[in-house]
Amino acid sequence: KESISPLLGKEFLFNTLIIGIVALIIVGLVVFIRYRHITLSLPIFLTGASEIVMILGVVSLIRYNLDLAAVTGILASVGTGVDHKIIIMDELLKGRKEEEESAVSGMSYGARIQRAFFIIFAAAATAMATMLQIVLFSFGVGKLRGFAFMTLLGVIIGVGLTRPAFSVVAQYLLKHEKKA
Length: 180
What we know:
Distance between the termini: 60 Å
Radius of gyration: 19 Å
Number of helices: 5
């Protein structure tokens, strides 16, 4: 068991907050460079930030103590969330491009979202199986358990709440941007 003085713990918490904010800004910048349109990249950034708030809300409800491994797990789950949102956005943009190139529409937005969610659920199931294995079978490896638990919590919140919400927002933005 390790212990940290309260002064170092306070400094650790501040540094972790700064690193998290810097990571969010960098991810937002990379996504903006990818899509080169603020209305497409901003929802990815905002849902990532809201996912962090939701994870921290659940963590505070269950009174779980955050450590470095747990913070890393949160960042890992938010990182996979960004990947999933890019999959959704790319599927929708691909459908829009096909509609513009041909008079006959290929797949509907709903079918494209369904295809994107198949990929997302497969990736989430793999992550959850791996993290459950770590949580359940890693006797004596406490730090790894914190990482696995936070990643598992983040994946559950992401797949259950933020990915579906993002898909609705993305469909709305692309339909209304097309008309404008």
